[in-house]
Amino acid sequence: MTEEHTLTLTSCGIDVGTTTSHLIFSKLKLEKVFTQRGVKFEVTEREILYKSRIMLTPLIDGSNIDYLNLVEFIKDEYNRANVSIDDIDTGAVIITGESAKKENAEELVKSLAHKAGKFVCAAAGPNFESVIAAMGSGAALYSKESKKTVINIDIGGGTSNIAIAKDGDIIDAACVNVGGRLIAFDRENRIIRIEAPIRNLEEKIGVKFDYDMVITEDQKKTISKILAESLFEVLNKSIKTEVARKLLMTNPIEYEGKIDEMIFSGGVAEYIYNKTDEEFGDLGKYLGEEIRKIVKTQKIQLHEPQEMIRATVIGAGQYTLQVSGVTTHISDTEILPIHNIPVLEPKLDTKNITSESVKKAILKSFNLFDVVEGEHSVALSFKGAIGGSYAGLTTFVKGVVSAIPNTIESSLPIIMIFDRDIGNSVGNVMKRETEARENIISVDEINVEEGDFIDIDKPKVGGQVVPVVVKSLIFSH
Predict the structure, then answer these.
(1) CATH 3.40.50.10490, applies to 3-124
(2) Which H, E and C letters describe 93-119, residue by residue?
(3) What superfamily would CATH give domain 128-303?
(4) How does pLDDT run across 195-228, given as a tens digit for each residue?
């Protein structure tokens, strides 16, 4: 294989979580693949070059992350790995859990992305974090290979991110404020950290927690027991207590089908699967023990994941250059190039497409990834046959337009991606049959996945093709 057919990229993933922060460097080998749809690069090899130490996420106070301390840690890990910023081709910075709620979270993640290299950055909302964790733990892949429907619960310091995976896809997600570091204490058991969700337990426990107050062993166990029971009320779709209702951050689980196995990831999973007994001045060990008791009592079938505490940090950026088909529709090339656009994949029943079903699928996808429609640009990816006839395409585009009124009003690009050669047809029909006549970008023969980010360049070769760079979150298998 000649050199021009291969690319090697260095990627970095950084996760700033409620309890811990860490990073991973990876080497990605991409090979040029020739298909009926054109030429593209695919990742053929993934090698983890370096796993950083794990630090407790530093805080200045209850509302702000200690940015300078965090940057020094990252710089030190770059030095330990013998990697410079110039060596990094791509990557992702993700801030999760209670850390994502801090006042300086958005500013911090953007600054880290800028300093660390060519990065995609995201302050992951609770549902998006659930998706990332289920992919990073290996649960999504396991559901595909085992043909089982599994539920992945990623328990970190502040939240438990729940995702149901079936056939490799995440079909439902939820999040509850149950974590191992909602309250933390020093060696003398004096409280040094209190996160807001813990206040929901005070009335039931009969204690008002405060800084420097001594927390007893019984109180640690009682808190952990209530947190574990609240988590399983959500998992069992039987939310009966006021505490569980208050701890639930998202809509409850809607999936009504059978769950074959349960998987835990995140830092607390290290205790659930007896991988460690080290304590960090928090509830992690106690919460893990209480969850094990419930698993045993309810005779739940557990599966051990490939990744636990590093489930989210395994994410790193991947550049995959793809070229659109020749049937692309770009209403105005002046809106290109665009960068770092998140990809959503509305799940359509292609055998029964109505405008209402298209609208509902798009809105559900927005909700799953914590996207507020019209706030930022997104790319909607559709797979399979959308409708060959003019009438069928009209039905489809009317459903799309009805789901994105704020996008149209704000003059944001309407970005659609298809895996079949219908991009130009869809764009033209949308322009003729709906009120959306401008800022339409409809590209086809592009293979993207939900959760990817894309860059779209100006058309090349006399406008015949549009280069698209797909930046996926890489998950180690």
Answers:
(1) no
(2) EEECHHHHHCCCHHHHHHHHHHHHCCE
(3) ATPase, nucleotide binding domain (3.30.420.40)
(4) 999 999 999 999 999 999 999 999 999 999 999 9
